[in-house]
Task: inverse folding
């Protein structure tokens, strides 16, 4: 500092350290305002839930049909030795059910009682969604949207935030209870 | 051992020594209990006498000294203290040492002469630290305590190993195919390599089997762990009820998987309670009937093949088939006509029917049966089966057959509805081939003869609500004959894929109420296969069958519209039948056009549903034939076919059919709608 001609390694290092801490602080303050979410496509729309519900995202393996259960349980698959269900939650959300193609993925999520696989048309990875752009579902707005907490208005359009706690606790997911 | 009497002596000595040992230990804790001395004296005295008889002077001398010491205690001349008891225990140990050496035909590891001499003088033989004493602390330090969860986890991991080994085996087979496809110069080294790999996998297989055996062994517990409390239960119950009962347990050492054992205890409590409250008569009644006043209840366990048989037998009044039938009719479990039709043996099993014993009065009528359906349910849960045997006035015997473990099962793998299922072999009687001509109808169901016995026939995919692979024309169907308690059913499947040992995996909480399934396993290709819960199939089968058997329903059936279902595919027949029956229609099935004409001549149907392509006359010809007859001129006919061309539809309508449903888009809503539209 001061004398530009001198090459003071200490000054440079100090400067670098300050820059580093500053950047960290900025990142942190930004992090406070975003929600880490797994973003994916259901019924042609973009949906998301908090990453802490997600265990992993896998390609759709061979699904074995289970007799005498509700249609939303599309089958079971072998997840490294654990028998896991693949469920199609789109009817629960009132969505159309376009075929799950090659981009299809299974989002393995863990609820209080069991782990289960949610079929999605595509997965778009983990994104930090900004709270500033979040609009909660207005209570009493008349629009009934089950299992939805609200949506984020982001550049690419809207991302709907699912209420995973309510969804995973729904008895409709449990075979044979209907 | 040369002398046969020696053998007998050694066995007798073992018993006396054991009771000496335990008695002395009690006495050591409570020196005031001099009442024990008498029994101890008797033991020592008997041993002395027997040893003399077979000429074992050393044992006779030792036990004589012991007897003298005990007598001294009884007379109060000798103090009952730790030292005196220790001396007696040393004596017992020495006798044990000598007899066990005799059994092995070796010289005892003890200077017997010197010991006898010292012992008579009341000295503690210093050199008798021999076997028994040394062994015990060592054995104790050889065991560790382990958490049950850790054991379960271990067993699961071994299960994973087995699955992985199966995948390796599947890969080996693939490698063979790859080698075959290569030119000879490349395939030779590959074949050699494959051979070596195969050996490695074989050895791995051996190791895994050993490991599995050991891991399972860790989870095994002897029956004794649950039977101890049962003695007390029987004793208390007998007192409450004013019965005199001798309770015997045989096979306490038989080991069973801990998980199964937990499930077994409530069942045994139930059965023993039944045996005492409904089986064993009051002492006076027994005496009057010429039986010993004291009744006997026997609980026994033994191995048989890959399972454990547990029996509860009492020599009480037995089960009376006549009063069970009467009770069943009174409860509405079955109608009088049906009751007359069943054998005495079958009648016993009526006690397992739900609803048989909901009220206490039933116990007065039938003499047995408090919640036997609960017993059956619990046994099914652990994949076991129950058989009953009884003779009125003499005995009742309930036999439970349990698998050794629930974590690995022997199963038959079958293809059904495009999926693969495993059927536990405990329920499998045999595999049969069925030709269409061998299928008869009985009531609304279909039956075949298996070894002369009329057996209901169902389609497995139909029962499970799965789609069917097209039947290959006239070829015989594959069917599995399943047994459960006294019942048999036959289920058609697409193919048998062989027997396999399968590792059972739970389906998790998401499937806790699922029907038809017991669990899943993972096959060699890494894909899961579902394991069928066979008793559910029997429930499902009975539901369909009983619809026409009960009196009320038979009455209702007279008012119900009758439908004739004609199809050469058993899956389609079963599916259509169950859809229609569930909506209150009475259904009769026919396996061909000819069969349909015959049946339609016997009784009047309100509606006919027919396939098109069948061996013999086809659906169009059948429709035309029906239209030509006086009785069926106006009867609606629905054609259900996989042919979807307009030409076929036109032909159907020309033949006189009222509706045409394409099988590809077959859904029950459409069928029902059409049926309701035509006949209401």
Result:
């Amino acid at each position: 500092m001061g004398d530009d001609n001198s090459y003071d390694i200490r000054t440079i290092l100090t400067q670098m350290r300050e820059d580093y801490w500053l950047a960290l602080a900025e990142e942190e303050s930004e992090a406070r305002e975003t929600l880490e979410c797994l973003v994916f496509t259901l019924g042609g729309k973009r949906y998301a839930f908090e990453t802490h519900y997600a265990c992993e995202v896998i390609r759709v393996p061979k699904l074995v049909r289970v007799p005498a259960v509700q249609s939303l349980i599309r089958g079971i698959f072998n997840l490294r030795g654990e028998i896991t269900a693949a469920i199609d939650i789109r009817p629960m959300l009132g969505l159309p059910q376009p075929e799950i193609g090659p981009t299809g993925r299974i989002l393995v999520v863990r609820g209080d009682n069991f782990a289960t696989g949610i079929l999605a048309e595509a997965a778009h990875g983990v994104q930090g969604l900004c709270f500033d752009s979040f609009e909660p579902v207005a209570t009493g707005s008349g629009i009934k949207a089950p299992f939805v907490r609200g949506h984020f208005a982001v550049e690419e359009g809207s991302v709907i935030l699912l209420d995973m706690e309510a969804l995973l606790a729904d008895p409709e997911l449990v075979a044979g209870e209907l | 051992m040369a002398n046969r009497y020696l053998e007998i002596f050694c066995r007798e000595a073992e018993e006396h020594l054991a009771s000496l040992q335990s008695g002395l230990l009690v006495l050591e804790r409570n020196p005031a209990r001099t009442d024990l001395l008498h029994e101890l004296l008797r033991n020592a005295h008997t041993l002395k006498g027997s040893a003399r008889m077979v000429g074992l002077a050393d044992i006779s001398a030792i036990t004589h000294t012991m007897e003298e010491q005990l007598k001294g205690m009884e007379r109060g001349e000798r103090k009952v203290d730790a030292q005196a008891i220790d001396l007696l225990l040393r004596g017992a140990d020495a006798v044990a040492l000598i007899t066990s050496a005799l059994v092995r035909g070796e010289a005892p590891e003890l200077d017997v002469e010197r010991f006898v001499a010292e012992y008579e003088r009341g000295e503690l033989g210093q050199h008798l630290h021999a076997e028994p004493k040394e062994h015990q602390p060592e054995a104790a330090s050889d065991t560790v305590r382990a958490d049950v969860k850790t054991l379960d986890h271990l067993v699961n991991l071994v299960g994973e190993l087995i699955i992985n080994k199966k995948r390796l085996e599947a890969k080996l087979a693939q490698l063979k195919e790859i080698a075959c496809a290569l030119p000879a110069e490349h395939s030779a080294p590959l074949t050699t390599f494959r051979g070596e790999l195969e050996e490695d996998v074989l050895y791995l297989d051996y190791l895994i089997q050993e490991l599995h055996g050991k891991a399972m062994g860790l989870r095994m517990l002897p029956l004794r762990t649950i039977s101890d409390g049962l003695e007390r239960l029987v004793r208390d119950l007998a007192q409450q009820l004013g019965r005199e009962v001798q309770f015997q347990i045989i096979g306490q050492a038989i080991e069973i998987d801990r998980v199964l054992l937990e499930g077994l205890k409530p069942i045994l409590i139930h059965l023993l309670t039944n045996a005492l409250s409904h089986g064993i008569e009051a002492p006076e009644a027994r005496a009057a009937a010429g039986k010993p006043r004291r009744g006997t209840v026997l609980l026994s366990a033994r191995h048989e093949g890959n399972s454990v048989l547990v029996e509860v037998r009492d020599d009480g009044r037995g089960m009376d088939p006549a009063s069970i039938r009467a009770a069943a009719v009174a409860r509405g479990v079955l109608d009088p006509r049906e009751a007359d039709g069943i054998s005495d043996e079958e009648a016993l099993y009526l006690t397992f029917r739900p609803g048989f014993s909901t009220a206490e009065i039933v116990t007065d009528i039938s003499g047995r049966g408090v919640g036997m359906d609960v017993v059956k349910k619990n046994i099914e849960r652990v994949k076991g089966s129950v058989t009953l045997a009884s003779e009125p006035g003499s005995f009742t015997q309930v036999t439970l057959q349990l698998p050794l473990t629930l974590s690995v099962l022997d199963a038959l793998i079958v293809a059904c509805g495009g999926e693969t299922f495993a059927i536990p072999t405990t329920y499998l009687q045999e595999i049969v081939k069925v030709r269409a001509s061998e299928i008869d109808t009985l009531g609304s169901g279909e039956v075949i003869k298996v070894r002369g016995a009329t057996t209901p026939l169902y389609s497995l995919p139909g029962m499970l609500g799965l789609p069917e692979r097209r039947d290959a024309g006239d070829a015989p169907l594959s069917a599995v004959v399943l047994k459960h308690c006294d019942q048999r059913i036959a289920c058609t499947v697409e193919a048998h894929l062989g027997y396999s040992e399968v590792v059972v995996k739970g389906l998790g909480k998401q499937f806790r109420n699922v029907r038809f399934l017991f669990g899943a396993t993972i096959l060699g290709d890494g894909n899961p296969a579902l394991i069928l819960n066979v008793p559910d199939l029997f429930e499902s089968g009975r539901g369909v069958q009983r619809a026409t058997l009960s009196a009320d329903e038979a009455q209702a059936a007279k008012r119900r519209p009758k439908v004739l279902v004609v199809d050469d595919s058993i899956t389609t027949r079963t599916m259509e039948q169950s859809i229609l029956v569930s909506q209150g229609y009475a259904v009769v099935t026919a396996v061909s056009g000819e069969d349909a004409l015959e049946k339609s001549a016997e009784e009047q149907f309100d509606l006919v549903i027919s396939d098109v392509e069948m061996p013999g006359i086809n659906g169009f010809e059948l429709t035309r034939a029906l239209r030509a007859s006086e009785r069926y001129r106006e009867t609606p006919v629905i054609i259900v076919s996989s042919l979807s061309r307009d030409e076929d539809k036109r032909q159907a309508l020309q033949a006189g059919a009222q509706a045409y449903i394409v099988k590809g888009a077959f859904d029950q809503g459409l069928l029902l709608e059409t049926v309701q539209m035509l006949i209401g």
In short: Helices of chain A lie at 9-33, 164-168. The interface with chain B takes residues 61-62, 64-69, 73, 76-78, 81-85, 113-116, 173-177 of chain A (CB under 8 Å).
